[in-house]
Amino acid sequence: MGFLVTTLCLVLPVLGLLFFYVRRKFSYWADRNVPHVPGSLPLGSFNGMGTKEHIVDLMNALYVQHKKTNTAVGTFLSIKPVLLVLDLELVKQILVKDFHIFHDRGMFFNERDDPLASHMFSVEGERWRFLRNKLSPTFSSGKIKYMFQTVCEIGLEFLASFEPYIERKEPVEVALQATKFTCDVIGSCAFGLTCNALQGDSTELLDIADEIFNPRPMQMLWMVLLMSFQDLAIKLRLKQTSAHIESYFVDVVKKTVEHREKNNISRPDFLQLLMQLKTKGTIDENEEDSKEKFTMNDVIAQAFLFFFGGFETSSKALSFALFELAYSQEIQNKAREEVQRVLSNHGGLITYEALKDMIYVEQIVHESLRKYAPIGNIVRIANEPYKIRSPDFTLEKGTMVMIPVHAVHHDPEFYPDPSRFDPDRFAPDAISARHSHSFLPFGDGPRNCIGMRFALLEVKFGIAQLVSRLRFTVNERTQLPLRYDPTKNVATALGGLWLDVERIIPGK
């Protein structure tokens, strides 16, 4: 009995303090007279995220509810205050005009204990500027063209991968095929690996991608907690990256680099450019070398970022575009006519120059990114106090702001009948008539996606390669209307994207 009393005397005060601490945290926006969405444990204003609803659906509901009355609304991610930005002029201020205040993403990274997470997407301040300046030349038009031949070779395998389904007259889950295509492309262009995912070989890279992009609910909660308590997590030497994922990438990159350096091997890929940065300090011969060196750990982390940033997002844009082409035969036929017309002017080959001439296909890619933005929100951190006019308050240093990309892309003010797939939304006249920040699949400003041009090229190539030879229709296994799988981080159709496929005669 005495033990029980002693235990209660110790535990109850701790629980009481914890209760008041959490309650105080959830009064953050109310104390500042900011319109807000109440929060509760464990996920703050987004309870149900990852289990019952996808985060973009939750944000879209908040956007619709508050947009007409406020430029921003307070929310909570776990117990962390997050300002949800609803007005595009404020979005423009944050991403471009006042970038010097919002240059960091506030992502968790622990350079000492979690080297893979210390890549350009996550790191902050001067370290980010150094990496961005060093890596920008790797995604110039010339360097992308340098890697294009690898994409073309894998494209032939992508086309051939549909043959078994045609022969057996079976539907194909096109999202899976697109994932295999980007796996082979990124594996080759980032690491020099021959993955053979399209040929049906089981590949560890696919398994790792699934774990990274589709975390289980407890893993998702873990990531939210790391972001919410970053300083404590770093002091406790906690890591975001699983040990076996870290071991895989570190081993692959180190062995590949050592093999190339030992045998004087050079390949047209991203890793080769990173190796040049490590040995010469620059890719641009006209650039002066900096005092800060590009290390082997930098090579590993940035190669991982290329995989992380280009693998799943590109495959989603491609698979949703193919679904929409299957759903609308009119759009598909128009795309095919353009591809065949352009190819006739380029010797029947999908060259780098030929892709630049496929204007309508590019509009299809942009509309796919509009309707199904792979990453549904943009995150930034205020690096100093920042005055917000409506609601009237000062955003404290260190406060996270979130821009709901999916919600903006589905706002009928910018995109009438937003659920309709219409590539003509991205004709030049239509683009110029809209707000400059109504289309944000790659972010904007100095910290936009550095690999944007490579991703667009990859998706555009995949569409051109397939529609030139194949016709797609929607199979009854596809669940219509499409809904996002709430358990997936990246936009993923619940039940899959099942299409029927048949050969066509070129020119017809």
Compute the number of helices.
21
Sequence of strands across the biggest β-sheet: 1-2-7-4
Proportion of strand residues = 5-15%
Largest sheet report: 4 strands, mixed
Termini separation comes to 88 Å
Low-confidence stretches: none
The H/E string reads HHHEEHHHHEHHHHHHHHHHHEEEEHHHEE
Oligomer: single chain
Structural class by helix and strand composition: alpha+beta
So what's the overall shape? globular
Radius of gyration: 24 Å
Helix fraction by DSSP (H/I, runs of at least 4): 40-55%
Can you count the beta strands?
A: 9
Average predicted confidence as pLDDT:
87
What do these coordinates show?
- By secondary structure, the chain is α+β, with helices and mostly antiparallel strands.
- The chain has 21 helices and 9 strands.
- Helix 15 crosses helix 16 and helix 15 runs parallel beside helix 21.
- The longest helix is centred in the N-terminal third of the chain and has 24 residues.
- The radius of gyration is 24 Å and the shape is globular.
- The model has no long low-confidence stretch (mean pLDDT 87).
